[in-house]
Design a protein that fits this description.
alpha/beta; 17 helices; 8-stranded mixed beta sheet; 15 strands; Spore Coat Polysaccharide Biosynthesis Protein SpsA, Chain A; 7-stranded mixed beta sheet; 2 domains; 445 residues; 4,4'-diaponeurosporenoate glycosyltransferase; membrane; Nucleotide-diphossugar_trans
Length: 445
């Protein structure tokens, strides 16, 4: 008989995944643990029928929580021992004494663990005394043996970055043969979670797992809104945001409005910061004031689609930066053309503008130096910088509607303005002084 032992805690707040606090709340830590247990249960169900599974758990909480996940066909036992090494030795020794020919043991925080990894550990044991499978952080997530050996668990500093190497050295010093499984990443820290965001973007199979879905849905979002003389639009936007304010952080950054904008912002519901004028200054201040995983820069004259947070999470599941498509509250054929050109530009020229609602990974935003110190074209330069770094842009499923206050007048005036904006961008690309370009761009507020 071959046996596989799972070492786990019962998912309880303030007991499980505590190294993720305060990045995750205690409730989120439990949710992540449960998601990983569900994925492991599916992996165990894919094992060869000759492998018997044991679940060894810490004696705290209601064991029915994990029984409901793993099923009644597993053998459940409490962990015994003073420390982790002692507990692992006792479990392996116990199962070997019951007639198992080979035993492998693993924890529950390796989302990429496959049935093949477990079964290959038994293959290694056919020709080796010990098998170890390393983690990215210097530990190991799987250990297997045919004879109980207490000495290899007498390693100081479990949870440090030298456990695998120290254990490997001890095995070699004892004259035992070692088989090594593939290296995988566990989830213990905020940095591990961020690494798994990258895996989600590239691994379609992993994207379907309980763990990946949980990680995606629990990304935090901050909405940052620069304001300047927006008393005509601010109330409408706040009304849209009230329905989602409990699921994200919302920060208004006023650039010295001379009207009633700042007074109208409901500080009991939203955060209000003050900055010198300039969208770049305002948005950078807002970004520095939050810890969210995702930054969403939104203009005040925007109308959001239904479920904007879900659209953002869906977008950022695959991309590190992107935007919503744009539409205008106008039946003018020219505005339909402007809409088409703006949305097509995201994929054709890799350029997005602020009125499309820019969405970006916070770490990426900080890595590129935030918005550049420019009085105008800050969103254009942001896109150019992302393009230089090879960052692909995505687009959310639905559109943001924005006002046409800059496009007042008849068709001729609209065409002239569109041509002017195109010319200003061309001047910027040619290196024309930014103050000269800014002087040509008249603020409509």
């Amino acid at each position: 008989m071959k046996a596989f032992i799972v070492f786990t805690r019962i998912p309880l707040e303030h007991k499980t995944k505590t190294r993720l606090l305060p990045y995750y709340t205690p409730k989120q830590c439990v949710g992540l643990h449960i998601a990983m247990l569900k994925d492991l249960a599916r992996t165990l169900n894919g094992l060869d029928a000759s492998v018997k599974t044991y679940i060894y758990y810490l004696p705290e909480g209601d064991v029915s929580i994990i029984k409901n996940i793993f099923g009644d066909d597993k053998t459940y036992r409490e962990q015994r021992g003073e420390d982790l090494g002692d507990k692992m030795y006792n479990a392996i020794s116990e199962v070997l004494a019951e007639g198992a020919e080979a035993v492998s043991l693993s924890g529950t925080d390796i989302p990429l663990l496959l049935a093949e990894d477990i079964e290959s550990s038994f293959t290694f044991l056919e020709n080796n005394d010990i098998v170890l499978s390393p983690t990215e952080d210097g530990g190991y997530y799987l250990v297997g043996m045919k004879k109980a050996n207490k000495e290899i668990f007498d390693i100081e500093g479990y949870g440090t970055g030298s456990v695998f190497e120290n254990t490997k050295q001890k095995i070699e010093d004892m004259g035992l043969s070692l088989g090594t499984g593939r290296r995988l990443r566990d989830i213990d820290t905020k940095e591990d979670i961020k690494a798994y965001y990258g895996i989600i973007r590239t691994d379609l199979d992993f994207r379907k797992t309980h763990t990946a879905i949980f990680l995606k849905e629990n990304k935090s979002i901050a909405i940052i809104i620069p304001t300047y003389n927006e008393e005509e639009t601010i109330v409408s936007l706040m009304n849209q945001l009230k329905g989602i304010k409990d699921r994200c952080e919302i920060v208004f950054v006023d650039g010295g409005s001379t009207d009633n904008t700042a007074k109208l912002i409901e500080e009991s519901k939203f955060r209000l910061l003050h900055s010198k004028k300039g969208r770049n200054n305002q948005m950078n201040l807002g970004a520095l004031s939050v810890e969210a995983d995702i930054l969403f820069f939104l203009h005040c004259d925007s109308t959001l689609p239904p479920n904007p947070l879900k659209e953002i999470l869906d977008l950022m599941e695959v991309y590190r930066a992107g935007c919503f498509g744009i539409a205008f509250k106008s039946l003018s054929p020219l505005m339909f053309i402007c809409r088409y050109i703006s949305n097509h530009r995201v994929f054709d020229r890799k350029v997005m503008f602020g009125d499309q609602g820019i969405v970006i990974d916070r770490d990426l935003f900080m890595e590129i130096g935030m918005y550049p110190d420019l009085p105008i074209m800050e969103d254009y330069q942001l896109s150019l910088t992302l393009k230089e770094k090879g960052i692909k842009l995505g687009m959310a499923r639905h559109r943001i509607y924005t006002s046409t206050r800059r496009f007042k007048g008849g068709p001729i005036r609209k065409l002239r303005l569109m041509w002017k904006m195109n010319r200003l961008r061309a001047k910027y690309r040619r290196g024309v002084n930014i103050e000269e370009i800014s002087a040509m761009y008249k603020d409509v507020r």
